[in-house]
Amino acid sequence: MHSITKDKEVERIETLAHTKVADCYQCGKCSAGCPMAEKMDVLPSTLIRFVQYGNVEKAASFSAVWQCVSCLTCSTRCPKSVNIAGVIDVLKQISLEKNVVHPKMKQVVAFQKSFLNTIYRNGRTNELEMVAEYKIRGLLGNPNPFFAFFFALKDAELGLPMLRRGKLHFKLGAPVKNKALVRRIFAKCQEPVSR
Description:
56% of the residues lie in helices and 0% in strands. The chain has helices at residues 8-17, 29-33, 44-52, 56-60, 64-67, 73-77, 84-97, 106-122, 127-140, 145-153, 159-164, 179-190.
């Protein structure tokens, strides 16, 4: 029988997620309530178990980390109040830091980076700017010319319906008035955490 270890990575996860992973006794309520469980390669309870045993990098490499939609159902259902969604958020961060993003999730990561960069620049989303950055990231991430052509055009049919509904704006970079406030929020999120 393995003993639950506590290393620096586990401490970091607990600090950032404001929780104690050792409190989880694997009842499975988080996994039973997860709306994405059927799509995940491992269940939320399994991710917590990997973290409990100190196998953080392995936990961060599963596609389940990026399939989590942060609905907080898992954390809400936990009888021990373990912040499972918070742990998964930290695993996303570790996944990027250690470059262990599951290969099937690279496009998801490219989309999220494009979304956040657009908010950082403008204080709000700008669909056209975000899609352009996302497509460029996708093209640069794959040298296959067939994939590049398909990827560049695969969402083109959505443009006209979005335009008709007023969901696609051509005014680039329409920033909020106080972009400095948004940048301070981003800077605060990137500060190191001290215990």
